[in-house]
Amino acid sequence: MTDRHGKDVGERTVPKRGTYIGNDAKPTLRTVAELTGLAVTTVSRALADAPQIALETRQRVRRVAEEIGYFPDRAAQRLRTGRTNVISLVLDPHEEILGYATSMINGITEALRRTTYHLVITPHFSDTPHLDPVRHIMRNRMADGIIFTRTEPSDERVRLLLERDFPFICHGRTELATQHPYVDFDNHAFAYQAARKLIAAGATKLCIILPPERFTFAHHMRHGFMTAVREEGIAFEIPKEVTLDSKSEDIRRVIDDRLSQPDRPDGFICGGEVSALAVMAASYDRGLELGRDVRLVAKQTSGIFDQIRPRTETIYEDLSEAGALMARLLLRRISEQPPVSELQALQTI
Asked: What pTM, to 2 d.p., does this model score?
């Protein structure tokens, strides 16, 4: 190993966590620099995960810092660099997708765990404008980047963040002319393939429970569904009384009413596990057998359907992977600012 002047100093021995010399002083950047034989500026950039520093050097510096218990002074760091080393996830509470928040948070934190960044959850409640938490974060410079979900075709959050050139990435696409960073699931393919599966299984009339119309993925699902039913010329219906955001009891009640009628659907597509469970409950209450009288394809995001009998046809959306993708792409946006096309990902089936 060479020191900061290029001299060969051999391998340094790193003391165990908390045992560093110096009157029990708190380890600093200079401490890490002395132990690694690197310049303080190099150590600082390595801990910031600067791509200009060799990966091996970054890993060695990070390992030494962890072993001696060094943690950056975030207040001083913010004053010096203007960065908070915080990523904020604006989270909307909704229950139609089981494990949505947990899976996404797990993916984000896994992607951030070996970086200087940590995650802060910023809740957004349905009775407040969805611009409010974004404005609050920007105004108070509470994060270096923002992740948010449930995008709309003309999403005001995307417009604002693009105008202010503030780093962000969203779960879902928009229909804006200006390209932006996103990670999305191919909901068009989900609805199309789900419909094809039901038709192949013998269903003669399909029903799909869509998200609220204000969300972009509702349009993608509708288009995929309509493409499949038009190709086959099969009967279909889309309930207007309920959406994926409706309470499970309301969905069960509406489906129960439809199943009581002679022209009932016999194939259902559910974009969330909660709505699928409501369809299953309504079918059971009507004495209908799943797989024979009623067929179902559900989007699976948790392990719950692995434990349900009879087994139900599902198509899996990996929310943990989506979270990890968003975190990694957002960090690239913050540090490298690559072309927007390199900050877009579509999860396929």
From this structure: 0.78
